[in-house]
Specification:
The structure is a single chain. By secondary structure, the protein is an alpha+beta fold. It folds into two domains: 2-55, no CATH class; 64-160, Beta Barrel (OB fold (Dihydrolipoamide Acetyltransferase, E2P)), CATH 2.40.50. Helices cover 35% and strands 29% of the residues. It has a five-stranded mixed beta barrel with strand order 1-3-4-6-5. Strand 3 and strand 4 form a beta hairpin. 13% of the residues are buried.
Length: 163
């Protein structure tokens, strides 16, 4: 019985030495790696992290109908300014309250409220990209990106609402 215990202890000792040598070989390889390899690995890991974070923002545009089905989730919505409906901005009353109407890709028209000042040349915008949530029958925008026509190139104007 004692010989079996000694054999077992001997096997345990041999295995632990092998494990130590494997670990030490691995540690030696890491220490002796070229700096360029280490920098490359770190850059690849950073790129993976960045792409993972940015992937959440690469979503498709929703419609007013889809936004109404998810009132607690912020969505991106693309639409056109409805120029024949009321555009309200009264800075003397509230400089951070701006409302207007937008027609989405399905043709649905809804009132949009942006808690920010009215951007310059707002009426010239062709396409408006909004980020926000539906609240009842109104879309409460937290961000707005306007794509305006230009003689030479497209101009984009980004407006962020004050929280």
């Amino acid at each position: 019985m004692k010989t079996k215990i000694k054999e077992f202890d001997t096997i345990k000792t041999i295995r632990s030495k092998q494990d130590d040598s494997i670990f030490s070989n691995f540690a030696k390889k890491i220490v002796t790696m070229k700096k360029s390899h280490i920098i490359g690995i770190v850059m690849i890991l950073a790129a993976i992290v960045i792409l993972t974070l940015v992937a959440g923002d690469m979503s498709t545009y929703a419609t007013f109908k889809e936004a109404a089905l998810q009132p607690d989730i912020s969505v991106k919505l693309s639409g056109e300014l409805v120029k024949n409906k009321e555009i309200v901005y009264r800075p003397e009353v509230d400089a951070n309250h701006f409302s207007f109407y937008v027609k989405d890709s399905e043709g649905t028209v809804k009132k949009v409220i942006l808690r920010a000042a009215k951007p310059q040349d707002f009426e010239r915008s062709e396409t408006i990209i909004l980020t926000g949530k539906m609240r009842g029958d109104e879309f409460i925008a937290s961000d707005m990106l306007m794509k305006c026509p230009s003689k030479y190139k497209d101009e984009e104007v980004f407006v962020k609402a004050r929280s």
